Amino acid sequence: MGGSMTMSAVAQSTANAPETGSAPGEPLLVVRKLTKTFARSRSLMDLVKGEPRRRVHALTEVDLSVRRGETLGIVGESGCGKSTLARCLVRLHRVDSGSVTYDGLDVVALRGAALRRFNRRVQMVFQDPYGSLNPRMTVRATIAEALSVHRICPRREMPARIAALMDLVHLPLSAAGRRPHEFSGGQRQRIGIARALALEPDCLIADELVSALDVSVQAQMVNLLLELQERLHLTVLFIAHDLRLVRHLSHRVAVMYLGRVVELAETEALFAHPRHPYTRALLDAAPELDPSRRGSAEAAVRGELPSPVNPPPGCAFHPRCPVAIEYCRRVRPELVRLRDGRLAACHLAATEDGLVQSTEL
Amino acid sequence: MTTPLLSIRGLRTTLATERGQVTVVDGVDLDVQPGEILGLVGESGSGKSMTLRSILRLIRAPGRVSGQVLWRGRDLVPLREAEMRAIRGREIGMIFQEPMTALNPVLSVGAQILENLVAHTDLGRSARQARAVELLDLVGISAPAQRVNDYPHQFSGGMRQRAMIAIALASNPTLLLADEPTTALDVTIQDQILKLLMHLRATLKMAVILVTHDLGVVAQSCDRVAVLYAGRVAEYGAVGPVFAAPHHAYTLGLLRSVPDARHARQPLRPIGGAPPAPDTVGERCAFMPRCAYATAACATARPPLVSLSDGRLSACVHWDQLEANEWAAV
């Protein structure tokens, strides 16, 4: 494919309804056009030269929705905005523009007591349990603090509640009197989960929950997550860069690149037939566990991630895309619904499905 | 089989800690053939990085390396430091996980390549300059003539790793030790670096020891693999047969811990418990407390690394009773 291509965008269904298909489970969390930028600190040279203050475009017009009771996986490489997205959803960051709706609630506008009530319903578990647990507090004190701040139960019921939570994450009750440094990485993650579950949330956001763990411990955590979701009917946002884990845990997967969602589909459809060239590259680059199926001697994708300070015009992936055409360099593709119900932000995929008419190919 | 390039026997490394001397490499035997990529795989604390460092004796005193490291027939363990320097960085190169800490931030990338060329080759000044640019080109850095004067902070993570490989290649090493070279990188960049290493191995006929915790990396890039557990070799052999039919219960457990695409959202079969603290194992199988196959025979003595068919080695008492790794059967 080459030459110029003029397209009239006649996508019937754009990203106004980012739920793929119409399977049961209504959307619990709906994100629309979410944008977040961070001010970049200016160097002395920039000041002297009078350069304008530059901004990092962490999230640009992100659209997605999470259905009640499902696990939505979010994958992408570092700098794609997946952690910023998680932090925006629980209001650890203020968003620049766009909306977040949780069970009909306008999350962006929440304040005071309403915000605390929301925080109780949506809990986040972080990648680094060293950083998110207070080293001076015992496990019991950590969980008790969460229980009392949110007034979950009367003080006299706390010991029983703590015992139940320890049991839920498969830690012995004797561990409650110990401090974080006395635990292994996997056990510390269990403590982080117990603290999050203490508030009886209906949605859990797991940001690289198992990334720092060894593979045998990872598997234990995967089993715990599956079990908890089943028992507590949790909605889970599973953010990770490990495709194998995301595939195993998620019902649907959103792929992010440079602050945007580029593809969102049912897990099996995404892994079996990726439609966005970046998704394809990501899948090809991930080393397969079967030595008899070796990939090509060529790398799956050339080049590196562009700077989010100065994102490329048109499709953000075009400088690395093996099939990019002139049009991709100029016009940014919208996230549109393809024929099979998935969402993708690629001109070529949209053309293939007849969603845009190309007057010249 | 050809004579191995590197032959390690009974390698033992101890480190000085607050609790006294702790053994982190506990009698490792390994062979590296010329031009092959050998993977050292295991979980954190299994001794894979320490084994790699011990080969070049990069162990700070009062830590100690003992045993035998035969490099082209010559034992490196008793060598004096001055003799060691003629091998370290020259015949045997090394690259690390964190290029930003391994590279010197106040020297340009070119200067750091030149340093190695001065130390290990007899090229003249202008020849060295040209060689530095050539090396950057070889590792896939675009516009190498311009980038040679850049400093490490001007490079991205993937390019820093490429620069580090260029520095290591300056002395034309016969063996490259790579300590988790792609662990800090994104998956598409990891793919680029691994393909680069495989390409360099093929064109330069250089052997590589690749330390990684990622079984997928081993499956996709190594010829042979040694699975380490608690500072000991559990299993050693060609990658295909080891993955298809593990002959050590630990290898089987590791492979089963990884999610299988055909059983989405089903519980995994993790290895229970956690690896032992260093030096607490004693004279028995180190994996015994976590092993589903363990019997009294595993507790009586340390199982030796036994030679099986096709150059396979296993230190598992029950190696012939293990179930097949089911994904391989399909």
UniProtKB/TrEMBL annotation, chain B:
Q: Which SMART domains match?
A: AAA
Tell me which species this is from.
Acidisoma cellulosilyticum
Which CDD domains does this chain map to? Answer: ABC_NikE_OppD_transporters
Q: Which Gene3D superfamilies match?
A: P-loop containing nucleotide triphosphate hydrolases (3.40.50.300)
Query: Where is it mainly found?
Result: membrane
The UniProt GO MF terms for this protein read: ATP binding; ATP hydrolysis activity
Q: Which SUPFAM superfamilies match?
A: P-loop containing nucleoside triphosphate hydrolases
Similarity comment: Belongs to the ABC transporter superfamily.
Q: Write down the PROSITE patterns for this protein, in alphabetical order.
A: ABC_TRANSPORTER_1 (PS00211), ABC_TRANSPORTER_2 (PS50893)
* Annotated protein name in UniProt: ABC transporter ATP-binding protein
Membrane found in the keyword field: yes
Q: Which Pfam families match?
A: ABC_tran, oligo_HPY
Enumerate the UniProt keywords alphabetically. ATP-binding, Cell membrane, Membrane, Nucleotide-binding, Transport
Tell me the domain of life.
Bacteria
Annotated compartments: Cell inner membrane
GO CC, sorted alphabetically, is:
plasma membrane
Boundaries of every ABC transporter domain copy? 6-255
Q: Name one GO biological process term.
A: peptide transport
Membrane topology, record value: Peripheral membrane protein
